[in-house]
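Inputs:
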Amino acid sequence: MADNSPSPSGLVEEIEATRRELQALRARFHGILDAAVDGLIIIDEKGIVEHFNRAAERIFGCGADEIVGRNVSELMPPPDRDLHDDYINRYLVSGEARIIGIGREVTGRRRDGERFLMTLAVGEVTVDQTRRFVGIVRDITDQKRMAEALRQGEEDLREQRERLAHAGRLTTMGEMASAIAHEINQPLTAIATFAQAGRRMLGGGSPSLEELTQALDQIGRQAERAGEIIRRLRAFMRRRDGRREPVDLNEQLRKVIRLADVDIRHHNCRLIADHASCLPVVHADAVQIQQVVLNLIRNAVDAVADLPEARRVIRIVSRFVEPDRVEVGVEDHGSGISDPSRLFAPFFTTKAEGVGLGLSISSSIITAHGGNLWHVATAGGGATFRFSLPVALQVPS
Amino acid sequence: MTAPTVFVVDDDEAVRQALCMLIRSVGMTVEAYSTGAEFLSTYDNARAGCLILDLRMPGLSGLQVQDQLAARGALLPILFITGHGDVPVAVRALKAGALDFIEKPFNDQDLLDRVHKALRVDAARREAAAEVAGVRSRYERLTPREREILEHLYEGRSNKETARDLELSERTVELHRARVMEKMGAESLPALVRQIARLKEP
């Protein structure tokens, strides 16, 4: 009878072959795990690390030999570190997945203690009734940093844009007056020149009636054009009237100082802001108040621009004057005002290129707010302009 | 020679028309343009006159028009008209060679006086330029040898020195010299030196 059972030596060979096959399989398995770009960590039901691939070693700065056989919670900062065993137990008992199959951003802890942001996706594998968890880890520190830089950049851009838009609206009265002067100057020039040309034609030998008529028509039209500019200006002023909202003067001062900063630095001036720690709210048109303050600062810069650098200091003071007023002062140490009597009169100017409307309009804005704008000499020389505004009545809420 | 033209460049139609009427009222020829580009594309350097140029214009500014005219070697004197507060820019224009500036709104007599002055300056510039051009064309008719002789004359050397330098006989130098004087149309040595001096001006 033939014996069909394998010979002992054949069995040994077969076992040996299976062992080699298994070894090759395991090597291939580890090879695949190690080739992964993301960190791969395999743990058992107790949280003990069974496998830790190359990428995981790189991410955590920790060799596989240092962590395999130990609790995976060592790779976490508190509180996760102390709670991780509970997380696993809760899942094993309730089957309620918090992270498994979901993935989220968590904080990891490198071997040297450094914390970092990572994305963690966890999958579950059951082989022979033994559950294992596979964690896939990606370090997103750089990604986060770039996103943050991008967000900051966008934020800066937005702020810059807002500031620009604001500066556009906030031309000072001086600039506005200058623009208006230019606008009105055009028709005035045309009127004067048409009139003079007409007079000359009449004085000459053979005046052309046609040209004279044309000159007179133009004079009329240009006078209307000048009138239209003034009408538009009036409408613009009216539109700006009567807007009142609760305003924190300190906040407005800070905004204006930011706007005036370029101008101030351009002239190598130093600005000292001496704001009251806490000011009651006033009811005002914030943009108009900013215009007044900007105008006062520009005046102060002009006043000190030609002085030695040590004297190019401008101080902006705000304070609460009991019981019901808030006061703002802009002080310079320039050469001061020799004749203060005409300071607030329209078209009075000491500047070569000034129109002489800045202080006059500022004063009327403050008056319209129920306040006052006045000038005093700065102690030790120079000019100080102060304005006060009434504190808003408290409305019971 | 044709009469000089007053060119006006101003973007404001009313101001432009008024200026034209005023200038015509005293019998001068005027041409008006609403932009610097339009004027530059039309104007020919050979045309005599002066330019009344608005400083503030959309598109090419007055200063840019001035730059471009200078770049193409135009002689036309420029009178800038400026608005309030343009003085610093006007000063820059003057430094760049503008003849004058006048602030809006202007007095007619004042403006016309400046226009007359600008036309005189233009005539003088053109005369000087024509003179230099004449000297240059006469100079270009000289032979290389004659130019050598001329150079020696200009440097004040005697016939004897020149003859030695160029290894010629004194008699030959004298003959060349007479021909140089004749070709250059100079009646005397000082007149010849003056001509050449103008040619050598930058």
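The two ends of chain A are 110 Å apart (CA to CA). Flag for discussion at group meeting.
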